[in-house]
Amino acid sequence: xxxxxFYVPDDFAQEIxxxxxxxxxxxxRYLVQVIRNEIxxxxxxxxxxxxxxxxxxxxRKRSRG
Length: 65
Prior knowledge:
Blueprint: H1 10-22, H2 27-39, H3 47-53
Helix pairs in contact: 1-2
């Protein structure tokens, strides 16, 4: 896993630490979660199950051409 170093303003650092503590996570894990939410890491968790579970029409068949 890569290690990164960066600088943030003191007020950001304080808020990041506060939010990480509220989430009961180390700061590094909390920041990874924030970054994943922003950048994304593929399909959202349970995306296909949620879409299929909410389908209101008859199942569609694929045509082979």
